[in-house]
# Entry
Amino acid sequence: MNAGRPGSFSLTGGDLRVEQIVVVGGGLAGLRTVEELRTRGYQGRVTMLAAETRPPYDRPPLSKRVLAGEPDAAELGAEIDTTLRADVGALGLDLRLGEPATGLDLAEPGGPGRPGEPGGVVRTAGGGYPFDRLVVATGAAPVPLPGSGRQRFLRTHEDALALRTLLRPGLRLAIVGAGWIGAELATAAAARGCLVTVIEAGPAPLAGAVGAEVGSRTAPWYAAAGIDLRTGQAVESVADGGLTLPGGGWLAADEVVTAIGVRPSVQWLADSGVRLDNGVAADEGLHASAPGVYAVGDCASFMSRRFGRRLRFEHWDVALHAPEVAAANILGGSEIYDPVPYSWSEQFGRMMQYAGYHGAADRRLWRGDPDGGQWAACWLSGPRLVAILTVGRPRDLVQGRRIIASGAPVDTSLLADPGVPVKNAAQAM
# Structure
């Protein structure tokens, strides 16, 4: 810390001022960035611009707890508001709720009074916010279907509360998309007596997330829950009273929920000079292409050394840990973000956990019987494990994630044997 200038930091290569940080995005990634900045000693000003009118909160409970009926909606809202209000106060954060960013003006390099220093101004409908460093944490927004009919989404706290109010016995509910969110929503709706139809354009549930062959192993779960699962079925549009299908088909529904994926919320950066590539294109240290600009969370695509490509993940784990690297580098560090991504889903009475990135694999093997109650799918690239999906085998997930992180080669005969601990499959490097 530079004692002569409170809130400033002396960075490598000279005394570059970091006195005003703007975080655009009011989700977990943005909040965690602020927490990390304060933990690392930053005492300057921090402004957070949030599109939502609610303080930052965790999203996983929306599909995993709120729709299932626990806790009570009012209790959850009070719990979130009280906790986050205390956090915001303790962090000394200037939180601007309901004020999304609309544009970005980067400072000219070597401009008057700030030679060589990064910076700029974030524009909103309420005015401009100057910054020395900018963190883009705007997350992602659901992709809508065409059509004039009402379609609902599950992205915000308000979305979850509205859906939970609707779910009742006999409700004809059409869910478009059998990914993670669609499956969790179907689980909750069926448990509450809804008549659920799930429409999926792909050949199997979770086909986009883990591949059709692995995803197909979850299809019987829908039938067992009394859900009408229709795979390989496209949707033309949402209309009043249901869905219009190709060829003149029709699916009647009282409510439609669209869960076909999300897009990074980065439209406000168009023509700003910040490079976009499936979100904000960041390097290994989460620096964007413009000096002094960083990206974290769902809106950031970053270069992964481990998997040798640019990646973007919409996982809670990324929002939790990427800010550690961004905050360190804002304050002059040179840390690298190269995670073994992790996510989980609770659906149809089963816990599914996933770690790694199977897009880097050249083959897959089963661990246990995929038609049984507990099993795992393992993806390999050469002799190395690069991803693992487990159903009811949490120890396999923990041990497999560690092997992926280590990069150690594995003995595939041991890995495929469910009676042998996954860790025993790792070979010496």
User: Anything to note?
Assistant: The two ends are 42 Å apart (CA to CA). The chain has eleven helices and 25 strands. Residues 128 and 217 are 51 Å apart (CA to CA).
